[in-house]
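#onboarding

Welcome to the new folks! Below is a worked example of what a typical request in this channel looks like: someone posts a single protein sequence, and someone else replies with the predicted structure as tokens. Don't worry about understanding the tokens yet, we'll cover that in week two.

Example request:
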Amino acid sequence: MRRQLVEPLIGELRRDGVFPGGYTLERVEHGSTVELAFRAEGGATVAMWLRPASDAGGAYRTTRHFRVGHRGALDRAGARLLDALCDAVARNEAALFDAEGGAPLAPLPWEEHASSRLPTPPAIAEQRRRSEVACTSPYTTMEVTDPSGDVHQCCATWTIGARGKLAEGTLAELWNSPGYQMARRQMASGDTSGLCRAICPRLHDRGLAEGRFELAKGSERFVANQRLLMEELAARREVLRAKPLFLALCPSTYCNYDCIMCLYGRTPRRDLPESIWEQLPELLPTLHTLTLLGGEPLANPSTMDFLRAFDADAWPDARVDLITNGSLLTEKALRHLGGCSFGDVTVSLNAGTAAVYAEVQRGIDFAEVLANVDALLRFRATHRRPFQVTLSFVVQPANAHTLPEFGELARARGSRVRLLPLNPLETGELDFYPDPAAVASVLASLERFAAGAPAAWAAEIEGTRAAILAESARRGGVGARVEGPSPLPIVR
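Example response:
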């Protein structure tokens, strides 16, 4: 039955036995879900999923979720293939949705706006052409990742100073605190020196620049808040009526690992007040992403209670991102999380081999973690809402030589990657930036990783390389004086 359902769609895309641009088709079955992945030699991917309309099988529906990595990374043939795939899905809905002769199936609520964008208003687009802020985080983001209660506009390790403290008010009240107003004013001036550390990779790849801020489709309330925020950002307002789009919480510093580059596994446990969970319902209706991290977030009972009770009907636009070491992502644990709307689950792998994993992560066996990642991928295949799975890697001398193996692990699983340059502030003994030989060795490993990387990983690679060079130059190390050709130009 599956073959009868998908063959008309595949046949419509194929011309003279091949797909546009030499793309090849890989068909993967994840339980009852069928994934059609069209891949180019350079690694760009266009993919879609078909899933049964009910447990009884029969009719299938598309998830209307197309994974392309960064669409800009596709060549013209890939862009044409994506457009043709969308058109073919629409034309073959009868075959896909109505295999048993019934009426076409109504889309699930989240399918109407998953991974889709609304056009930027022309007046705002014109304003951005004249000038744009380098990072939108003071206008969009709150992070309470320090259990002391400090509130930051992004990752505490990349931020200089706090924007307020939980002891001074609720999250909603702190959103327009004097600290946030100062941060918006300074970011609008173009001077980030008092806000951001030079090693921040997002300053180098401009991943959070104003031009990257797009309107996501969703409920009327969700879209209206984004439009208001976009307008207030364009006007460089310091006091915002719009609510934040992104919130990150570290409920507890407790971790069952003892990673060499993190203090949480070897310092006394500290927890955020339980009242933080009571504040979330005020923000979730207009929130794009709630990120939960740690410590190990899945080791925190309150975090698990929240994930189990997540109300996707009350908060249809919000998604939950997890940053975890993966040790607790067992099939048994995942069975309790089927009702939560995830956006991304990032597993901090930080190694490409078992030996280096044991040296750097100092947790459970490497093979067990990879088995949990594979369980997560199976869970995703049957989940009500598609989400990303990302493998992350803190780049440092202890593990950089295994970057190519790490890349192979990610590619084999169709995962995204996240690369982070080591932040030496809390782990001075690992600081390699003043050492030209160490910096050159790390960059050489990064370039070997880049040689086999898909185009969708380019921004992560280039941002990390540029951040390492900038920090090294600032500290009197090798910096921009690295000799020899490089396939990874510094991102300006």
